Amino acid sequence: MTSPTQITVSQLSRLVGLPDAPVLVDVCIDEDFADDPRLLPTAFRHPYQDIAALAPKLAGERVVVICQKGRKLSQGAAAVLRNCGIAAESLEGGVFGWRDAELPMVPASALPVRDPEGRTVWVTRHRPKIDRIACPWLIRRFVDRNAQFLFVEPSEVQTVAEKFNATPFDVEDVFWSHRGDQCTFDTMIREFALETEPMKHLATIIRGADTNRHDLAPESAGLMAASLGLSRMYRDDLAQLDAGMALYDAFYRWVRDASNEGHDWPAATTGA
Length: 272
Hints:
Elements: E1 6-7, H1 9-15, E2 23-26, H2 30-35, E3 38-39, E4 44-45, H3 55-58, E5 62-66, H4 72-83, E6 87-91, H5 94-100, E7 106-107, E8 121-125, H6 131-142, E9 148-152, H7 157-163, E10 167-168, H8 184-191, H9 197-210, H10 219-233, H11 237-258
Parallel strand pairs: 1-6, 2-4, 2-5, 5-6, 8-9, 8-10
Antiparallel strand pairs: 3-7
Helix pairs in contact: 6-8, 6-11, 9-10, 9-11, 10-11
């Protein structure tokens, strides 16, 4: 039976990618991490010996602590956090349990360098639409929940990237961009090893909307319409991003949980 201070792999897998997902803290020792240098989606590394120092930043958050096997390090670190007033659990089975369930893990080598606050920083063209909202959504929900996004004039993206140590995306001649007939979102789910069936379905919808190929998925036209509507509603790019996060949250839950569900009128009736 699972301890009341632990969460199972199955339970956590249903929370990852959602707006209210817990904060994931990886306390694996360096030797264990070197054996398999991948992270659970949105997890960040922190030494277990210094776990109490994280408490002020985790105030009000639900936290899951992860180690290689879900034993002494994660259970002890979670207990320390609970003593600091943090709602903390450890992951039953740890990294091994998640890996053995064949759930997605992000290669550490794919992650950009973090800023002094521990965040990845990204830069792209201003007035974002479709791909430039979808990619930040993916990053914040599955890679780095605290990622920062800079929206600037197209001609300044590369210079801003250099001056502010940011990673450019969805512009020409950079790593994180369109490749062939696929869009930047496709590139990101591939490089971050997030190609689950729901995510590939979502990528097809986004690609159809972003490249004006609505034949790829019937939902692509609706996504484009909603995206263009958002761009007219918000002058501020960050406000538009905040609103767009909810849009992609809804599309993700649909591809993950409801794509086989229909709706009709009048409602079906039973009886004579």
